[in-house]
Amino acid sequence: MDLLIIGFAQSGKTSLFNALTHRQAAPGGRIGGSIGVAKVPDARLGPLAEMFNPQRVVPAEIQYIDTPAMGGGRSRGAGLSGELLNLMQRADAFVHVVRAFDDGGSPPEDAVISMDLELAMIDLGILERRLERLQSSLKGARTADRGAIEYESSMVERVKSGLEQEIPVYRQELAPEDRSALANFNLTTAKPMMVVFNVAEEDVAEVQVLEAEWRSRISQGSREVVALCASLEEELAQLPEDDEAEFRASLGAGQPGRDRVAEASYALLGLVSFLTVGPDEVRAWTIARETPARRAAGKVHSDIERGFIRAEVVTYEDLMTAGGLAAARKAGHLRSEGKTYPVQDGDVVNFLFSV
Known about the structure:
- The protein is flat.
- A hairpin with a 4-residue loop joins strand 8 and strand 9.
- Helix 4 packs antiparallel against helix 5 (143-164).
- The model has no long low-confidence stretch (mean pLDDT 90).
- It is α/β, with parallel strands linked by helices.
- The chain has helices at 13-21, 45-52, 82-90, 108-139, 143-164, 176-182, 207-218, 230-237, 241-251, 257-269, 293-300, 302-306, 316-322, 325-330; strands at 2-6, 34-39, 56-58, 61-66, 93-99, 193-198, 223-228, 271-276, 281-288, 308-315, 335-337, 347-353.
- It is 44% helix and 20% strand.
- It folds into 2 domains: 2-110 and 190-269, Rossmann fold (3-Layer(aba) Sandwich), CATH 3.40.50.300; 290-353, Ubiquitin-like (UB roll).
- A 6-stranded mixed sheet has the order 2-4-1-5-6-7, with helices on both faces. A 3-stranded mixed sheet has the order 3-9-8, sandwiched between helices.
């Protein structure tokens, strides 16, 4: 799961990247993006570790990529490096960092609108290049192929028209077959986006109020909203855990921003975690909600997916109530599920397989 951190100059996006990943990226990042990994907070791992006393505990992870500042008044993708464009197209979602200091500048919502326009211009460039290729292909196309080319051309024209009316792809009314065809284009305005409002340090005690206010203004389908102070989060992330907790309490800073962004990332992409346990390892695994058991097994190892027999499943709550796997089995809480079972958040799973 790759989330691309984007923003205009002085937005604080690199400070956020450092806070999320405990890294020290240079401001602006390199063209290919600075890459770091963040741990997904999961309160279930601690009690499971106490129960199984494993050699290691492994939380789920999210990969964040910091990128150079956007902007510069480009036209239809002009001036955007091919490497950066590829990163944007491959990303699962965007994290747009918005400067939200009360410094007399333009309202933070203006940056949201400006970024939407930047992304729309990128997509228009992609669609115009595709139309040129389709029109060229149509000239020498066989009769049997013309229908597919004309359908795609018509679909691209409609999406392009919507973008020119400042309607991002995720808000356009499109038939399922159109969205399926568009998936191959990896358009930026079709991707989910989180907007992180970077507030001043004196506002950290009010982030929940500010979040609610901004969410009511800009949150629409495929959007999550988080408010935090990126520079403060960057500083606190470098402290030992106990010291960080003490400073947060003194500042009224609440839950670490990296945890809130990770949780919002899960919500944004419709993700859940299932758990595997044992003396060697207690681990959380990231999957899309309703992933079938056989495909979830592939997250652990491709051989397990290939040789899947069945999954032994118990909910985290039932396991903790029973006090162990043997007791959960005796109480009838440990059940067998087939390959199509939709794995749920908090399922503790043991996959049986043969290869």
